[in-house]
Amino acid sequence: MSSVQPGCLWVVATPIGHRDDLSARAIDSLRAVAVIAAEDTRHSRPLLLHHGIDTPLIALHEHNERDAVEAIVQRLVAGDSVALISDAGTPLISDPGFRLVRAARAAGIRCVPVPGACAAVAALSVAGLPSDRFVFEGFLPPKAAARKGRLQELAGDARTLIFYESSHRVAESLADMRDVFGGERMAVLARELTKLFETVIGEPLAELAARVIADPDQQRGECVLLVAGCGQEAGAKLAEGRRIFAILREELPPAKAARLAALISGAPRKELYVG
Ligand code: SAM
Predict the structure, then answer these.
(1) Residue 93 beta carbon below 6 angstroms from any ligand 1 atom
(2) pTM reported for the whole predicted model
(3) How far away, in angstroms, is 197 Cα from ligand 1 center?
(4) Which residue among 11, 85, 94 is best mutated to probe the pocket of ligand 1, counting the most ligand atoms within 8 A of its Cβ?
(5) How far is the CA of 72 from the centre of ligand 1 (A)?
(6) SS3 sequence, 227-239?
(7) Is the dihedral of CA 142, 44, 18, 221 positive or negative?
(8) What's the pLDDT tens digit per position in 74-110?
(9) Phi and psi for 256 in degrees, rounded to 5?
(10) Backbone torsions φ then ψ of 201, nearest 5 degrees
(11) Residue 135 half-sphere exposure, CB side, CA atoms within 13 Å?
């Protein structure tokens, strides 16, 4: 029997902007491991050097994850401890690492979280939207039809909705959210959190979409979009509208069926059918 103890995989959150949002425990673990698997070694090196961490780095990104995983798991099994970091925030949260953690766990390796920044949770913590139940949707599909389809699936969800969005699509996405969820639904744009131009704006979707479309400055940097869940009354109307729509659609063209179902139920037509 081998006397080598397997190493641990430390899954370490790094800052989403402010360099000092790296915990003391994160710094200790990043110094102690044999190697740090980083999404982009050039991106992470300055942060690590700023905190006096000179542990060797290897690359683990979405394009080499399959191959890199095997080599890293072999090192873990042989007794090396490894830390996993991404470019920003918590690894695996819209970032690489899932395959590595899955493979490490399957090989009996202990995976230890070192929690810290996550843009979704940071945004939720200051949004002023209900936070007892929420759903993290990551990035919406980039193509308009698929994006609207995804939003429609979420229209009746009572939980606060959290999305990541790239700056060059934020205006388009907000316009689609206004169309699908209705202009009165409360929403929050949380931009450049923990950075110099940190901005958190909460207002109904019609106003927020108009503001962002009109102001290119609001389309810069990194952002999280949060939308209030569907209210109970609106949720019931929507469920009824969809039920009627499904029946009418058997006999009528979809646009006509949606118009009638909206009229009968009081639910917004666009939430029943976007065509
Ligand atoms: N793993 C990261 C986390 O834990 O939040 C997320 C990585 S994902 C590739 C990057 C997206 O996170 C950005 O496009 C943006 O939507 C969001 N994000 C990251 N940093 C942010 C910040 N400082 N302010 C607002 N949103 C941010």
Answers:
(1) yes
(2) 0.88
(3) 15
(4) 94
(5) 26
(6) ECCCCHHHHHHHH
(7) negative
(8) 999 999 999 999 999 999 999 999 999 999 999 999 9
(9) -70, -45
(10) -120, 125
(11) 14
